[in-house]
From TrEMBL:
The lineage of its organism: Eukaryota, Fungi, Dikarya, Basidiomycota, Agaricomycotina. Belongs to the cycloisomerase 2 family. InterPro entries: Cycloisomerase_2, Lactonase_7-beta_prop, WD40/YVTN_repeat-like_dom_sf. This is Isomerase YbhE. Residues 1-21 form the signal peptide. Gene3D superfamilies: YVTN repeat-like/Quinoprotein amine dehydrogenase (2.130.10.10).
Amino acid sequence: MKVSAVFVCLAAILSTGVADAAPLRQRSLVYARNNKVKMMNGQKANSSSSSSAKGAVYFMTNDPKENFIIAADIGSDGKLTLNRAVSSRGRGSHGQTSPNGPDALFSQGSVKASANGKILATVNPGSNTVSVYSINENNPSEISLIGDPVSSEGEFPMSLAINSNGTQVCVLNGGTVNGVNCYKVDKDVGLTAVPNTLRSLGINQTTPATGPAGTASHVIFSEDGKSLIASIKGTPPTPGFLAVWDVNSDGSLSQDFKKVAPASGGLLPFSMTVIPGKNAILATDAGLGFDVFDFSSGNKSSAVPIQGQSATCWSSFSKKTGNFYLTDIGTATVTEVNVDDNLKGSIVKQYPQKAGSATIDNDIASIGNNDFLYVLAPNATQIDVLSLDGAGQAKSIQTLDIAGPAKAAGLSIDPFNLQGMTSFVKSG
Ligand SMILES: *[C@@H]1O[C@H](CO)[C@@H](O)[C@H](O)[C@H]1NC(C)=O
Ligand SMILES: *[C@@H]1O[C@H](CO)[C@@H](O)[C@H](O)[C@H]1NC(C)=O
Ligand SMILES: *[C@@H]1O[C@H](CO)[C@@H](O)[C@H](O)[C@H]1NC(C)=O
Ligand SMILES: *[C@@H]1O[C@H](CO)[C@@H](O)[C@H](O)[C@H]1NC(C)=O
Ligand SMILES: *[C@@H]1O[C@H](CO)[C@@H](O)[C@H](O)[C@H]1NC(C)=O
């Protein structure tokens, strides 16, 4: 019996051709891994589906065994429904902190969607890779990996920038081997390295990074797409800085970066949000509140304290209200900030969230004529949803539990590892 089974097997291999047998098996394995999806809340997987959702938000489990992206539908009222978790085929990691807690990567932008590119990218900090997915425009929670995860060419990748047309992705590595590296997005094979974009930061770090002080924070493109900017926190009393590379027309980067210091008082530049039309950036500053970096000849940079803050680290901008929304992990508070025409920053209003929930990554989606703020609160394993009805008029409309639906779907969640928040909205 045994012998004939071997013969049958051999015959099968010979009939398909010995050379083809292994690749066939590999292809089917890749296919199976590519489709590792855990549906949530009774949703059904359907590769040709459309949904009534207006968009989706995405964040990561950042699990050291296997990183999953969790996608939640955005309804017409701005409220969320968890839809699915999709493997990135990479691993998560947690920075070295004392005590251990949420904010595993000390970063903003670990997961990033592009409306123009219809793609979603994620870092895999524990396997030093980057994964890219296509987003189904008709059902934005439905994301499918394109190609294999690619090397970040450094250690502890923790933030991503995507250019405005969604054709180039750059990663910020924050470990012992740190710096940036960029890829073109190929809709068939995924990410392909762009020559002359692997650039070192030269910060003295470990893998995983030790922080939050002295760690890399965030990478973004400038509004005109001509600069790639990384933020680095200081190690008190030494202030941090922004590293600015020129982006050439072929996507390559200048050999060296320009080092830009915050205005006096600035210490720990964290997230960066473009101030529209100003050639300037608002950077949260965990040591103070926020910094305004003015890149125009006006030189109106400033460092603005937020009284009673603990660690203001994440930010986003609302087109509807014209204001910025900053989150503080320690006080679990959303602070609404206005930056006027002369780049003078001021605090509009504060919105306390659940004490101890550790509000971290946030993003804003415009649905119809309304803007909604989505805040990851990992210590409570929840997302806070606020409706931004006007300047100074943010209103809590939902607290979305992640833990219950994840457990029901067999998805393992460590609240201290949860990270990232990015949104995609259907066009039209
Ligand atoms: C998948 O979605 C399409 C379009 O919405 C629908 O016609 C089809 O019945 C769905 N299939 C399953 C198995 O749900
Ligand atoms: C996308 O933008 C880059 C520069 O940022 C440009 O080189 C490229 O041609 C653009 N691609 C498309 C399809 O518009
Ligand atoms: C790097 O940091 C470590 C730990 O703080 C320190 O011991 C070492 O001297 C630093 N190295 C350099 C070159 O600054
Ligand atoms: C900007 O202002 C600071 C003082 O606020 C000054 O030290 C610096 O030289 C100025 N830079 C330029 C380019 O004018
Ligand atoms: C997270 O929750 C733990 C346990 O309740 C608490 O000790 C810790 O202070 C919280 N961390 C933050 C940043 O809120």
